Amino acid sequence: MNKAQFSNEIIKLCTVRQAVDRYKIGRTSLMQLAERENAVRRFGRSVRIDVEVLDKAIEQY
What we know:
Number of strands: 3
Helix content: 40-55%
Largest sheet: 3 strands, antiparallel
Mean pLDDT: 89
Order of helices and strands: EHHEEH
Distance between the termini: 42 Å
Structural class: alpha+beta
């Protein structure tokens, strides 16, 4: 099985792990905020965070 290759360059969507590293908050807090702001995108079992939506939400706080 091939190991997944992750890029540090985030354009539109990022993984939960990348979002945790980007915003420096815990996974649970991140997911609660992302769910509240409708920034979660699901593709089957894959979960991605819409960076643009979450950035706008964080700027408002």
